[in-house]
Structure formats: C-alpha cells, structure tokens
Specification:
By secondary structure, the chain is an alpha/beta fold. 44% of the residues lie in helices and 21% in strands. The chain has an eight-stranded parallel sheet with strand order 10-9-11-8-12-17-7-18, with helices on both faces. A seven-stranded parallel sheet has the order 21-22-20-23-24-19-25, sandwiched between helices. Strands 1, 2, 3, 4, 5 and 6 form a six-stranded mixed sheet that branches.
C-alpha cells in the first residue's frame, strides 16, 4: 500500500532549508494585518493579465510513498510566453541586509510553486522572483532566477531526499502505532461504574465529529476514560493526533500516568508534555538570542537531528527527557518542544496552546485539525482562563517613558501619539465603552512596526514588554465584538485601557473549530447549561452527566447555617471555630478547611490555634513553590499518629486536582458559598448576562462560586473505599438555588446545631 503524506510547501521547505539561530525573544514578523497590507500593496502593481493568490498542489512520488504538497503562490506574472512566480516577503530589517542568498527557504518555496505550475501547464522554464518589502519604508527589492523545468525538478527531489530521512521513520512508527492502538485492551480488569459510559461517549463523539460536555463525578477515573477511547479511535483511523489540555501540573501528571499505563500494555505512541518556557529554559534570563544563549545559537542547524533522535529512542517525552536531549543536541528546550508538537501523536499541555490566539500552535493546518481531537480536563477552569486569554490592556506610562528614552526618533513619535491619545481619553471621562477605539488600535499598529525596527538593533526591556502588550492589544482588538467591553482606569497620571472579554464562548468556539472532536469534562461541569453556554456549546452538542459510583453512605454531609458574609464574620468566628473542632473530633484522620480568602483563613487559623493549641495544624501560604506545595500535601499521610488540620483557600492550589486517596483525608470543611468578590468586572459580567436573557447574578457570582465548593468537597471521596465527612458552613446552603446545585450524593445532609 502506498503511503500518502500531506504537507504544505512552506512547512516542507522550512523543515529542509531553515538554518541559523533563534534571533530574538520576539518574532520579527509583523502583525497579520500588516503582512496582508504589504502583499496587497505589491499585488496592486500587477498587470491585468497577472494573477494573485494562486492555489497550487501536486503529488510527488518518492520511493514507496507519495507526498501531496500544496500552497498559495502570491503572484503569477505573465508577459507573453514568460511566466514569473512572485513570492512576497515583508521584513523589518533594512533591505541592505537582505541579499540574494540570505533566505534559502524563500527560494525553495518559490521554486516549488514554479515546479508545480510548470508541470501543470507544460512549461519548459519559469522565472522565480522574490520580492522583499521593508515594512516601515515600503521600499522593495527583487531577486530573479530563470529555471528550467528539469532544474526545478532536480531541486524538488533533493528536498524530498532530505525530508525522506524523517518521513521514513514517521511512516514506520505510524504503522506500529495504528496496529498497537487497534489491538489495545482496557488496562484494568473491569470498568468502574460510569467509566464505560464515559469512554463510550468519548469514542462516539470522535466518530460522529461532535462536541461533548461531560460531568463525571470524582473518582470514576476520568483521565483513562477519555484517553483510552481517543487512542482506540487512532487505531480505527478516525484520528491522527490528540491534545490533552489541563490547567494544572498535577492533572498533567495524571495524564502522563494514563499514557504510561497504556504503553506498558503494548501501545506504541509518542506522547509529549509541554512545559512552560520560563520553567524549562536553561538560562538564568530568558533572552532568546544567539549572543545570550548557546541553545538559541545555531538552533535551526541542529533541530532536525534532535527531533529524529528523540523520536527513535523515546515514547514518553516529558520535561526530564526534553532537557536530556536538548543538552545533547544543544537546542533550546522550549522551541524543541514546539517542533515536536507537530510530529508526535499526543500532546499534554496547558489550555493556551489551543485556545490562546497569541500562543496557539499556528502551523497545525486545517487538514491536520480534521484528524485531531482535543480533550479538555477540568474544563470548568477554562471559562475564567479564557476571559484572561481574550482580554488585553495597555498603560499610558510605558509610552510616555519610551517617548522620553527614544527622543527624536520615529519610535518616540509613535509612542507619543498613543500617550497623547490616552491623555485625551482621560480628559473625556468616557471610561466605559461598548465600541472599540479604532483610532487607538491604528496607533498601536504603527508603534509595533517602529518597535520591531528598534528591537532588531538592540535589547531594551521596557520596549520589549510594551511591544508584547501592544501586540496583544491589537490581536484582541481583531476579535472584539459585542461580548467585549472597553474600560478605562485613571489613577493620578496613569491611564490604563482594557479590552475585557465578558463572555468567552464565541472565541472558544472559534479556536476549537476545525478539530474533529472536542471533549470538555470535569467533575463539576454543573449546571450543564451554564458551562455549555460559556464554553461555546451548540444546540446539537452531546451532554452527559455521570453520577458518583460510590455509595452515598460513604459521606456524612453536615450543613452549619452560620453566616459567612463579610459583615457577619466577626460575630460568627467563634462559633465557627468551635464547630471545626466538633467536626474534627468526629473521627481520626486528617482534615482540610477551605476559606474564601487568605485574610479570613488567617483570622480563623489564629482563633483555632488559640482555642485548641494541641491540634496539629498547617496553613497555605501565598505564592507557594511547587516544592512547598508537595511538602504541604506530603504531611497528609495515613501513618500520622496525630490528626492534622490544614487551612487552605477555596479555588486555590489545594482545592482541586489534588488526590488524597484512602486514609490520607477524613474530612473537608468548606467555609462560605465560594462567591467571587463583588467588583467592577464581575458586575459588568452580571449586567451583560442579564442583558442577553440569562440570570446575571447566577452567571457572574453563584455558579462560579459553587463550582469552587464542589471541587473542594471532591478532595474527599477518591475511591470506593474512601469514607469521611463534608461540612458546609453558610446559611445560604439551605436556600433553594444553592440546594439545586448540590450533587445527589450530598443531598442527604444533616443540619448542624
């Protein structure tokens, strides 16, 4: 059977011809809008008979496989019998720095287009032309080569020869991956109750090319129940790739363990875990230039060899493995991961690699997306994370400072224009706007071009930071619609303008489009309608809810109706602290108490330790390192001779994604209904949702708060042998709207005295 491999011309020639170093901490490519503008500027000068944006494709046989390549030729210029292939490239560098052989990859791309077009139109020769445009001055520089069809064909087959070294290994691996995933069996003797239903729903979602919203109780084994059916879909040729998206390191570890278990059961698969840049960088300062970093210097000369080596030797590619091979081949570990993401079978990574428009893996073509599934773990976290991803802000002070530091330059002029504009906004006192400030966006686009020109020449921390913030501002402005609002904060001379995403649903839907299937799952995806709304759900999406497989009797639930409202906290503090002791005395073992804020937690901790100094306690600190978190959790072990009471923050690092199985935890106490602090942004969200026919207060405050409560309570029952007590402290838990949000297994509560 002939193997057919699809790849774009650009990706193919970049693989073979790219060389040199990672040159800077920012990408010198201009914004998409600027690049498009420059292409259109050049194309306006074409003659009537010329064509632009011409799609070309061809099948190139090589040994026992066929490579199907395609691309879009910028210009097809016709002058009598002469045909010229025009490839347009914009650059922030001075045109004097661009020589004929500066960018072999650009020639390779244009020659491929020439070869395909000449083959389709039976031409014996074509002219290959590279047109470079300086983004600031709009000056043009052109290079031309006349090539015969035979010369182009010879060039193309040399490229194919180089690419084949990688491709042969990839095809060989794919055959084994498909074979082993097809025969793979579920790695446990039996399915837990609810597990088969979840796995079946995930598989059906992939087969039917749908989106699934799954609320599946803690402890049923959600990780293996989503990964296993996705892997089986690969074996059935429904998928080529899958992303397992998480918000926290601890859930990433669970996914790694699930894949490792499947590999131990015979699966041949390449699994990559992507680690954040600041964590995996080898250097003290993350400055990505050949001068500052030996791993950036000559990166593209060595990266292909590093990729082939790691894929031949490893199946599970985590941080430790990446670091080992990155040092061996002297390549940047973060960029090494990004390169691998396009060729491995499964990727475990943060949400932002798919949903953040500034970070997402842009070389993942539509054709690849059609064969890719995304599994979104702890999907309730994506709502607020997405709001952050689709919001952006700029500060006047940065532009004022840059105007002063770069005086008498065009950068200073661009910075001054933004500073002056924000000054006018301040004077107008129009601080809340539905419409986008388009004039400011245009000024920001000009600033970006000027900033890039300076950053090519020099390092400047404030300029780099402001450049990134401004670029993000422009990027988010492109997405701006009626689900956004613009607001301005003025503090003395500072003016901050923020594009704030009130409802991320449309953006999440847009970023997830094109993938074969999307699975959003969590133990607390309730109420389903709320999460379906905010995560971009459509009317024909699948929704399932799988109750806890564990007996209700395993959990004793107590509601203590003390007010935890801010105004009542002082007078209810003492009875609450005594209630803690009553609950803790119910059984041996360790307890966790969760609070809505650090201050409230500290006050309660002090009172508790004053009243009960003999009880062993621990308290969560602000900004704990990973090591400190691990030490905190390690104290909760079943071998302790004395019980331990931990004080932690609701919605924080210990209230979700943490597994304290067996006798490590005997009780959870939740103080308050988890309601987010009332504030300007939350109130804007409330008003927005009210205006579109939802219950604004519930959408902005009640549902996000109760999710934190359910997550915290979920730390208790992690397996069918776990037992314990959950105490909920707040009189609002007895109100109907909160009662309706309690899971079935919590509804047999008693009321505290």
């Amino acid at each position: 059977m002939t193997n057919i491999v699809k790849i774009s011309v650009r990706n193919l020639v970049e693989y073979v011809y790219r060389s040199g170093s990672i040159e800077s901490g920012f990408r010198t490519a201009t914004t998409m809008i600027e690049g498009t503008r420059i292409h259109q500027l050049v194309q306006k000068g074409y003659q009537e008979q010329d064509e632009k944006e011409v799609f070309v494709e061809a099948e190139i046989p090589y040994e026992d496989f066929v490579v199907r390549v395609d691309g879009r030729c910028d210009g097809l210029l016709k002058d009598g019998d002469t045909v010229t292939i025009d490839e347009i490239k914009s650059t922030v560098h001075p045109l004097d720095d661009v020589q004929e052989d500066t960018h072999p990859v650009h020639w390779a791309q244009a020659i491929f287009y020439g070869y395909i077009y000449a083959g389709d139109h039976d031409l014996s020769k074509v002219t290959i032309q590279l047109t470079y445009v300086q983004v600031k001055t709009l000056e043009q520089k052109q290079f031309r080569r006349v090539m015969t069809y035979e010369e182009m064909e010879s060039f193309v087959y040399k490229v194919m020869e180089e690419y084949a070294l990688f491709l042969k290994g990839k095809i060989k691996h794919k055959i084994m991956r498909n074979k082993t995933s097809k025969t793979l069996e579920f790695p446990f003797e039996t399915y837990r109750e609810g597990q088969r239903k979840l796995a079946g729903s995930v598989y059906k979602t992939i087969v039917d090319k749908k989106t699934l919203f799954a609320s599946a109780s803690t402890g049923i084994g959600k990780t293996i129940s989503t990964i296993f059916p996705a892997v089986k879909a690969i074996g059935e040729r429904k998928l080529e790739k899958l992303f397992y998206l998480t918000a926290k390191t601890i859930t990433r570890t669970a996914a790694e363990e699930a894949f490792r278990l499947l590999i131990d059961h015979g699966l041949d698969i390449h699994v990559l875990t992507i680690t954040a840049k600041d964590k995996i960088c080898f250097q003290e300062e993350t400055i990505c230039t050949s001068v500052n970093c030996p791993f950036a210097d000559g990166f593209y000369d060595r990266i292909n060899g590093a990729v082939i080596d790691i894929l031949e030797q490893e199946k599970m590619i985590n941080r430790m493995v990446i670091e080992q091979y990155a040092r061996k081949h002297r390549v940047c570990p973060f960029e090494f991961q990004v390169e691998l993401a396009y060729v491995v079978d499964a990727i475990i990574c943060d949400y932002n690699y798919i949903f953040d428009p500034r970070v997402s893996l842009k070389r993942l073509m539509e054709e690849q997306k059609k064969k890719t599934a995304i599994l979104v773990d702890e999907a309730h976290n994506l709502v607020d994370r997405a709001r952050e991803m689709y919001s952006a802000e700029i500060n006047k002070s940065n532009f004022l400072q840059l105007k002063r530091e770069f005086k008498n330059s065009s950068l200073a002029t661009a910075a001054k224009a933004i500073n002056d504009h924000l000054l006018q906004v301040k004077k107008s006192e129009d601080y809340l706007r539905k419409d986008l400030d388009k004039e400011l966006v245009e000024l920001c686009e000009t600033f970006i071009i000027e900033a890039e020109a300076e950053l090519v020449k020099m390092e400047h921390e404030l300029l780099l930071d402001t450049y990134f913030a401004t670029k993000t501002f422009v990027k988010i402005a492109e997405l701006y619609n009626d689900q956004f609002v613009t607001y301005v904060e003025v503090q003395k001379s500072e003016v901050r303008m923020k594009l704030f995403c009130l409802d991320p649903s449309e953006q999440i839907l847009k970023m997830g489009k094109g993938f074969r299937a999307r699975v959003f799952f969590s133990a607390t995806l309730t109420p389903a309608g709320y999460y379906k709304d905010l995560l971009g759900g459509q009317s024909d999406d699948y929704v399932i809810s799988i109750p806890s497989p564990f007996a209700r009797e395993n959990t004793e639930v107590i509601i203590q109706p003390l007010s935890t409202r801010y105004r009542d906290r002082e007078k209810t503090m003492e009875p609450m602290v005594h209630f803690f002791k009553d609950v803790v005395d119910k059984m041996d073992g360790n307890f966790l108490i969760f609070f809505p804020s650090y201050q409230y937690m500290r006050n309660a901790y002090e009172q508790f330790t004053d009243h009960y100094p003999s009880v062993a306690t621990m308290i969560q600190d602000v900004g704990m390192s990973e090591g400190e978190r691990e030490d905190f959790l390690a104290e909760f072990n079943s071998e302790r001779t004395e019980k331990l009471v931990g004080f932690a923050v609701l919605g924080g690092i210990f209230s979700e994604g943490v597994d304290l199985k067996g006798d490590r935890l005997q009780g959870v106490i939740v103080v308050g209904v988890g309601m987010p602090q009332i504030g300007f942004e939350r109130d804007m969200m409330k008003d927005y949702f009210q205006s579109v026919g939802k219950n604004g207060f519930h959408y902005a405050y009640v549902y996000p708060g109760m999710n934190k409560v359910l997550q915290a309570g979920g730390r208790l029952i992690r397996s069918d042998s776990d037992t314990g007590v959950i105490a909920l402290i707040d009189d609002r838990f007895l109100q109907r709207k909160y009662q309706a949000l309690l899971p079935y297994e919590w509804q047999h509560y008693t009321i505290g005295v």
